[in-house]
């Protein structure tokens, strides 16, 4: 790569052609729920497909490492930040519409749509079946990527179609020709608990379709309100966090493991295993990513040594 094509210079040069935002050395704590994390070389917030095409061109020319971010409600960014490009998807595709297809009621959503807005539409439109998403503070893209859910339901069971966009050239093996889009239908989904195994690394989720059923707005609203009240009672939502840090191991809840290790309320620097829900690590105001990571590492190593339990993170890392 020649000197005048460093990633930063390439993206600087193309600011006038970009409808969304291109930010340089942007500190990611502003873009994550934990409110921690250092800068990224480039933060791209695309507004449309033209922006995505430009980003893809930049990635191919400059070979800059790339990561995708939604609302940042499940991501821990290192204090040193990320030496690459972060594509923040929150303004890219906010569509939401319903249709009937072969007797099924389908809702199409853009990946950028906040789940809270999807649920507001669900109440208005009488779209039942998505209530389990209440209180999960992410985007549609984040929910599809993570298979977000609770004991009341999981994203994978309600999905009909997932549309992904390749920001890097699709692998030849996929044989999809010139297009950058690929649609996955139900029999192509591969999901596990809080994990997808099918969204290609070089792609981002652009849209998703959900199967829903007709219900009354008041039933849907009542179910959602009940979930929100319960969350308020049981979760420390007055502090920055990423929700549950660990997945539940077999036959046990992750919070019970933390409790059995006497880590409820334990603090390192400005980070603490919440007293209220100890599978949440909260930022008390001055936490660094390294404080949060130190708590995670401590719980993992003690769970293994003292209880023979392998704790696996639900939270995703960037820049570690
Ligand atoms: C208070 C609180 C409560 C929570 N409760 C729950 C809960 O009950 N259940 C639950 O499952 N989660 C919960 N979470 C975690 C989080 O909200 C979910 O994981 C959510 O789905 C993340 O969405 P996001 O848009 O914020 O994704 P981000 O945190 O921005 O990203 C998460 C991962 O998804 C990837 N990603 C995001 N968008 C895209 C895209 N468009 N294309 C490709 N990859 C993408 C990112 O690269 C990253 O690996 C909670 C979080 C908080 C703060």
CATH topology of the largest domain: Uridine Diphospho-n-acetylenolpyruvylglucosamine Reductase, domain 3
Query: Percent of residues in helical segments?
Result: 25-40%
Largest sheet: 6 strands, antiparallel
Ions, cofactors and other ligands present here are:
flavin-adenine dinucleotide
Number of beta strands: 19
User: From the 3D coordinates, which CATH architecture of the largest domain would you assign?
Assistant: 2-Layer Sandwich
Structural class: alpha+beta
Rg over CA atoms: 20 Å
- State the domain count: 3
**Count of DSSP H/I helices:** 7
**What kind of oligomer do you see?**
single chain
Explained architecture:
This protein has about 325 residues and is an alpha+beta fold. It folds into 3 domains: about 5-90, Uridine Diphospho-n-acetylenolpyruvylglucosamine Reductase, domain 2 (2-Layer Sandwich); about 95-235, Uridine Diphospho-n-acetylenolpyruvylglucosamine Reductase, domain 3 (2-Layer Sandwich); about 255-320, Alpha-Beta Complex (Uridine Diphospho-n-acetylenolpyruvylglucosamine Reductase, domain 1). About 25% of the residues lie in helices and about 25% in strands. The chain has 7 helices and 19 strands. The chain has helices at about 5-15, 50-60, 115-125, 140-145, 215-235, 255-260, 290-305, and strands spanning about 20-25, 40-45, 65-70, 75, 80-90, 95-100, 105-110, 125-130, 150, 155, 160-165, 180-185, 190, 195, 205-215, 265-270, 270-275, 280-285, 315-320. Strands 6, 7, 8, 11, 12 and 15 form a 6-stranded antiparallel beta sheet that branches. Strands 1-2-5-3 form a 4-stranded mixed beta sheet, covered by helices on one side. Helix 3 (about 115-125) packs antiparallel against helix 5. The longest helix is centred in the last third of the chain and has 19 residues, at about 290-305. The protein is globular and about 55 Å long. The two termini are about 25 Å apart. The model has no long low-confidence stretch (mean pLDDT about 95). Bound molecules: flavin-adenine dinucleotide. Flavin-adenine dinucleotide binds near residues 75, 136, 137, 142 and 145.
């Amino acid at each position: 790569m020649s000197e005048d094509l460093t990633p930063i210079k390439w993206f600087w040069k193309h600011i006038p052609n970009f409808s969304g935002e291109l930010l340089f050395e942007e500190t990611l704590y502003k873009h994550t729920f934990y409110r921690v994390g250092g800068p990224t070389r480039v933060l791209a917030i695309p507004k449309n497909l033209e922006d995505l095409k430009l980003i893809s061109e930049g990635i191919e020319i400059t070979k800059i490492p790339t990561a995708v971010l939604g609302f940042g409600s499940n991501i821990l960014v290192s204090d040193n930040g990320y030496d690459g490009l972060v594509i923040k998807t929150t303004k890219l595709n906010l569509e939401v519409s319903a249709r009937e297809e072969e007797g099924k009621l389908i809702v199409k959503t853009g990946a950028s749509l906040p789940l809270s807005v999807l649920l507001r539409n669900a109440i208005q439109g009488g779209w039942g079946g998505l209530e389990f998403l209440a209180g999960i503070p992410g985007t549609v893209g984040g929910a599809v990527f993570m298979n977000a859910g609770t004991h009341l339901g999981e994203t994978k069971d309600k999905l009909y179609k997932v549309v992904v966009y390749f920001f890097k050239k699709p692998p030849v093996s996929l044989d999809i020709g010139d297009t950058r889009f690929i649609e996955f239908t139900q029999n192509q989904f591969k999901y596990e608990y809080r994990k997808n195994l099918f969204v290609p690394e070089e792609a981002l989720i652009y849209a998703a379709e959900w199967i829903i059923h007709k219900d009354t707005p008041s039933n849907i609203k009542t179910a959602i309100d009940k979930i929100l009240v319960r969350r308020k009672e049981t979760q420390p939502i007055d502090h920055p966090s990423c929700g549950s840090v660990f997945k539940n191991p077999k036959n046990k809840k992750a919070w019970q493991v933390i409790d059995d290790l006497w880590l409820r309320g334990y603090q390192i620097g400005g980070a603490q295993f919440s007293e209220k829900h100890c599978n949440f690590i909260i930022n008390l105001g001055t936490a660094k990513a390294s404080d949060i990571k130190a708590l995670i590492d401590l719980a993992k190593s003690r769970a293994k040594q003292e209880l023979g339990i392998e704790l696996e993170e639900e939270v995703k890392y960037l820049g570690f």
